[in-house]
Each structure stands twice: as C-alpha cells, then as structure tokens.
Amino acid sequence: MERVKIVLKSGKDQSPRRYHPWIFSGAIKKIYGTPVEGDLVEVYDNKDEFLAIGHYQPGSIAVRILSFTRVEPDIDFFRDRFRKAISYRESVGLLNDPGTNVFRLIYAEGDDLPGLIIDYYNGVAVMQTHSVGMYRLRREFASILKELLGDKITAVYDKSEGTIPHMSGISAVNEFLYGNSDPVVATENGFKFRIDWTTGQKTGFFIDQRENRKLLGEYTDGRSVLNMFGYTGGFSVYAMKNARLVHTVDSSASAIDMANENIRLNYGDDARHESFKVDAFDFLNDIKGKYDLIILDPPAFAKHQNVLANALQGYKRLNIKAIEQIKPGGIIFTFSCSQVVTKENFRKSVFAAAANTGRRVKIMHQIGQPVDHPVNIYHPESEYLKGLVIYVE
Ligand code: SAH
C-alpha cells in the first residue's frame, strides 16, 4: 500500500530541516490519502523533496518524526534506537551502578523515540506511550528490551491507559507484556525506595530528581528540613541521613503512606520524621522560623501556554511564602517541572518572589534534569525540569 504523503506549506520545511521532531497541523498544505491515527506517513516540502517519516496523529502535533532520512521504521530500526539509548546509559555509568538501579531507559524525543517513555525499576521496565503509533508497537518493544537486556529484565509493564491521546478512541488496558512482578524495592544512590507502578503517579517514581536529591544531601547536616509536595518522600529519605528533623507535606493520602514507608525502609521508626497530609498553601501559612531548608517541588502549574501567566503567579506565591519565613541562613531548593515555563521565566518568578520579601537572596546552584533525561538539542521542549538552590540571608 502507498504510504500517505504529507506536503508542507512553503517555508514550513525550516523546522524539520533543523531536525525538530514535530510537524504541527498548521504547517500542512495537503495530505495525500487518509491516514489513520498511528500510521506511518512521509513528509515532503512543497517542492516534493522528502523531509521525514513519522507517526501521524490528528491534532496540534500532526506528525511525530522518527527519522529525517528515508528508512523503513521496522523492528530493526527500533532495535537500533533502543540499543543507542541503552549504550548511552551504560556510558554514563547508570546501567551497572551498584548503588542505583532506578533510571529512565527511554526518554522520548531525548532518545529519538518521540511518544515513548520507559523507566527501569530494578528489573521491571514500565512503559508509557503517548502516541498511537508507539502504542501499536508495545509488544515489539517488550521483546526488544528482553533481547537487549537479558537477565536485567524480569518484567515489562505497559501503563499507557492514561497517556495515549483520549481522542484516539483506543481503550488501552494497563498490563504486563512480559513476565510479572509485585512492587519492587529499588535503590537510588544507596537509598531504598518501594516502587509501585500500578498505584503510583506516572510510572511510579519521580526519577528525574535523582541528582538534585543527591545535591540536597550535601546541605542537610543538622538542619530542620521541610519537604513540600513530597510524593514518595524522595528528598526526605536523603535528608534523613543527617538532618535534625524532616517534615514531609503532600495533599494525597497515598503519597504520605508511600513517603512513610520509604522512611521506614531506610531508617525504621525514626521520630525525626513526621508527615502531614494537608494542602501546601495552607501548611505554608504558618512556618515562620521553623525550618532552615525547604524543598518546593510542586506539580506542573501550567500544562499549556495559555495558562502560563497564572502558573508564573503560582510559582511566585509559593516562593514568597518560603523565602519570607525561612530561618536566616536558610536554603531553598525550588523547582518547576512545567514544560511551558522556561528557565528564564522560572528564574524571574523566584526573583519577583525574593523582591517581594525584601530579603537578601543568593543563587547557589542552577539545576535541571539528570543524564537519563537527555535534552535533544533540536527539541528544546524536552528540557522541562528546572530548579534553583537559593540561600536566604
Ligand atoms: N518531590 C517529589 C515529586 C513531587 S510530585 C519527588 O521527588 O518524588 C507533586 C506532588 O504534589 C504529588 O505527590 C501531589 O500529590 C502533591 N500535590 C499536588 N497539589 C498539592 C497541594 N496543593 N498541596 C500539597 N501537595 C500537593
């Protein structure tokens, strides 16, 4: 069967010529044929020159590009992409690190596999597909993982139910594609975490804060630590190593249970840790002088460009509360994981917050996402996590 051909408007070839992996619907002049969501389509400029091949999707992002050269995206093609992603992680020391067996194995555009996320939890690979094209290939991906990782893979779980586009009409069912496993206990920098991909958010754990949690550990000695938006207690577990006290706050009861359990796994019953199931903004109303290290890692305040201004206000409000009330000489780890909030915008929000309080603030570190969430240089959108570590005099 002839493959569907998509021709771009004049000038709209600039983006794929610079290897940006998305074709927006507005760039399309004509579609020759009637592609079904998830089909492979070829993209041409308006002089009929081949530009790319990718997965079709009706909607704002019309094509997620797999290759800018004329290749057949068959099983060998994907095996090769997986091999590259795995050898990258091997080369940065993640694949055989005795202290860490939790990492992101495939990071979508960052690994030239748009629409596909695979996280690795001590033998269990948890997959989330964000496009029908990738979802259709899930079983092949499970076989490739087994083939390339052998004994390192005990099970592959697909958790695409909530991630493939609603409009596609596909009702994905979360299931094991290979093997079976109960929740696992995995290690990150020597700390233990129980990971439950079935009940947890996203694939079960926020792997992207690994390097920042390690950095936090350098500043916790003897401090009173407040971990806001704690989720599974990642930052709290690192802080507990030598902090005077650690308080974990989250509005979700299941998150608080997970955080408590992870503290217990590493420290048993330790009275230095306490958790609070409460709304962050309420909790922050009355913390004056109680803490000298605060972590602010809220969920994405902006999912779309059109709510950007509100999101920036949200970050500002949150940071004002922390900067205003932290003890003199305190440190704040403050983050934004909204893709639409740029590093500059986030820094401006924190600046505006600091100015509002009138306190002297120094930037100690400007941080972001770890090596297993590599930013595709042609796809700035793959950089989403930004953080500042600030010192408040
Ligand atoms: N810092 C965590 C990840 C945070 S995810 C880590 O390192 O793993 C964001 C968390 O914020 C979620 O657990 C969610 O339940 C919680 N949350 C969302 N809105 C909240 C609110 N208004 N008050 C308190 N917690 C909230």
Q: What order do the SSEs take from the amino end to the carboxyl end, as H and E? A: EHEEEEEHEEEHHEEEEHEHEHEHEHEHEE
Overall CATH class of the largest domain: Alpha Beta
Give the CATH superfamily of the largest domain.
Answer: Vaccinia Virus protein VP39
Q: Counting H and I runs of at least 4 residues, what is the number of helices?
A: 10
Main sheet specs: 7 strands, mixed
The parts where pLDDT drops under 50 for at least 5 residues are none
> Quick one: how many beta strands?
20
- What's the CATH architecture name of the largest domain? 3-Layer(aba) Sandwich
Estimate nothing, just give the exact number of structural domains.
Answer: 3
- Main-sheet strand order equals 16-15-14-17-18-20-19
Which small molecules are bound? Answer: S-adenosyl-L-homocysteine
Commentary on this structure:
- This protein is about 25% helix and about 30% strand.
- It has about 400 residues and is an alpha/beta fold.
- It folds into three domains: about 5-65, Roll (Archaeosine Trna-guanine Transglycosylase, Chain: A, domain 4); about 75-185, 2-Layer Sandwich (Transcription Regulator spoIIAA), CATH 3.30.750.80; about 205-390, Vaccinia Virus protein VP39 (Rossmann fold, 3-Layer(aba) Sandwich), CATH 3.40.50.
- The chain has a seven-stranded mixed β-sheet, with helices on both faces. The protein has a six-stranded mixed β-sheet with strand order 2-6-5-4-1-3. It has a five-stranded mixed β-sheet with strand order 7-8-9-10-11.
- Helix 7 (about 255-265) links the parallel strand 15 and strand 16.
- The longest helix has 18 residues, at about 310-325.
- The structure holds S-adenosyl-L-homocysteine.
